[in-house]
Amino acid sequence: MTIESKWFDIFLDVLSFVPNMGPIVRKLDSIKNDLKLKDVKYEIEKIWNVIDKNPLLSFEVPILKSLKLIENNELVPNFNFRKAESCMALLKEINVRSKFGRENDPFIECNECIRIIKNNIPTVEGPEKELKLVVHELEKEDLIHRHPYAIISPKKYFFCKTDRLFQKWDPVQDAKKVVELLVDNKQDSASPEYVDRQFKWGPRRLNSAIAYLHLKKRIEHNIKPESGEYFLPLLKLTREAYFFIENNK
Q: Which of 66, 127, 138, 246 is a good FRET partner for 60, with 20 to 30 A between their CA atoms?
């Protein structure tokens, strides 16, 4: 085992003991051989290599520095939930049930949420109380709406924030491809239908990329959403989109 792989694996092992970090560890472990992680791994390895020279150093500083690198490079969502297992169970269910990856798709009733928590964590005590705390955490992270009659649903940026955990695609990388397509074709705008014909992702995946661009103000905000399959009826690049490409070459 090389020094590099040793220290990255040690980082994951140590992180797994930090409360609420389990889903992040599993995602990092699943992508640790991806090329997009290569440069970040190298920087993490340099951070942790100081432990080799001084074994008495606390792990706290390298953990925080490594997590900051991961957050800055948008490799995984930066969630730090209390009630992490229950939160992740409900997030996953909302994510995989959605047909189009749009706001309020799907709606889930309270009783169904309780069933999801009980099925995923059979040992949970007081699932009704657990759900109240989970909903509080998800609202705090601006992920869900809470409606009358004990119904919840995803907010408009829910899927671009959670797809990296629960789907095979990465909205950040997809968003980069969308911008590159338009820039390479010398277009500053396009319909989502046009973009979808080029990539053949379908609305569910494309909407996540569009939502990410919208969240980061890389497409215009003055275009109003419409009913239908796509997040917006038109994608018009902002100047931020061009910096996005420059910074990710």
A: 138
Peptide bond into 148 cis (omega under 30): no
Against a cut of 0.85, is the pTM above it? no
How far apart (Å, rounded) are the C-alpha atoms in residues 77 and 181?
25
Domains of the chain: 3-72 (no CATH), 84-160 (1.10.10), 168-247 (1.10.10)
> Which residues 6+ apart lie within 8 Å of 74 measured at CB?
172
**Beta partners for residue 147, in sequence order:** 151
CA–CA distance, 178 with 198 (Å, rounded to integer): 9
The span from the CA of 131 to the CA of 137, in Å, is: 10
Give the sign of the dihedral formed by CA 158, CA 159, CA 164, CA 170: negative
Here the tokens at position 102 are 């749009």
Instruction: Give per-residue pLDDT as tens, 112-127.
Output: 999 999 998 888 889 9
